[in-house]
């Protein structure tokens, strides 16, 4: 009787440690950790998309749930609105750089904070804007893909 009970418990534990695809995993769950390198690679992919005017890459970087807060009017922008504005912009990004970067990993979530400096040039080539921002990005690794799920920024006024 005791042997049967132990075997039954082992069988239950074995089934509970399999994910929906039948792959055996530790009981801690299906969380696949994101690494600091992966998080910083996403930041640089995002930067390169802006510099190149690459809408397709930007679409891959941003999760469908992504939201941006930090605009002067207090509104929150979503992925669709941001990509539409980016596609129709009458300006280009000429330089984007970062300093004071820090990355914190929480399982499948990475929080990247830092200072961002950018130079934006209007289509005429004469209207140049220089911005400095303090930002916080939140990235998540889902099904092996890392995407931005939230961003907040505040202007740095010298």
From TrEMBL:
Coiled coil: none
Pfam families, per the entry: DUF4440
InterPro entries, sorted: DUF4440, NTF2-like_dom_sf
Transmembrane segments: none
Domain DUF4440: 42-145
Stated name of the protein: DUF4440 domain-containing protein
Annotated organism of origin: Flagellimonas maritima
């Amino acid at each position: 009787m005791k042997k049967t009970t132990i075997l039954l418990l082992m069988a239950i534990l074995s089934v509970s440690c399999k994910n929906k695809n039948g792959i055996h995993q530790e009981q801690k769950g299906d969380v696949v950790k994101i690494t600091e390198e992966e998080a910083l690679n996403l930041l640089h992919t995002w930067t390169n998309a802006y510099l190149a005017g690459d809408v397709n890459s930007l679409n891959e970087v941003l999760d469908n749930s992504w939201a941006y807060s930090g605009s002067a009017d207090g509104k929150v922008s979503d992925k669709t609105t941001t990509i539409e504005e980016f596609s129709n912009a009458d300006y280009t990004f000429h330089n984007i750089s970062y300093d004071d970067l820090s990355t914190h990993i929480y399982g499948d979530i990475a929080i990247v904070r830092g200072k961002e400096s950018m130079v934006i040039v209007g289509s005429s080539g004469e209207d140049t804007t220089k911005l400095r921002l303090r930002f916080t990005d939140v990235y998540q690794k889902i099904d092996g893909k890392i995407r931005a799920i939230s961003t907040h920024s505040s202007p740095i006024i010298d």
